[in-house]
Amino acid sequence: TPEVAGERAEVLGGRKMADKEKKKKESILDLSKYIDKTIRVKFQGGREASGVLKGFDPLLNLVLDGTIEYMRDPDDQYKLTEDTRQLGLVVCRGTSVVLICPQDGMEAIPNPFIQQQDG
After folding, report:
1. What is the value of pTM for the model shown?
2. Which segments constitute the Sm domain (predicted)?
């Protein structure tokens, strides 16, 4: 009967039909306060860049302008060097973004978890 088929369609795959309706996905971060401000972004794999945030979407895809990539030491991939590379306008894929922070007020500190070698 059509009624049974309709009920079966509602629970097909363990999901209700209401879940299949297109809903606007909300972002876990509100980046609107950082629009036109310089932010620093860290990516999976260790790359780091900073630029002016021009746009974003709920998946955390970012558009950065005037982007600068901070180069890593070839011998130690976890260590940044003083070298930079100008990238210009960049679209950052949200799935690879690990960290987003404002550039202002950010400063490097010594790692408090490394035991200092005396002598």
Report:
1. 0.65
2. 26-106
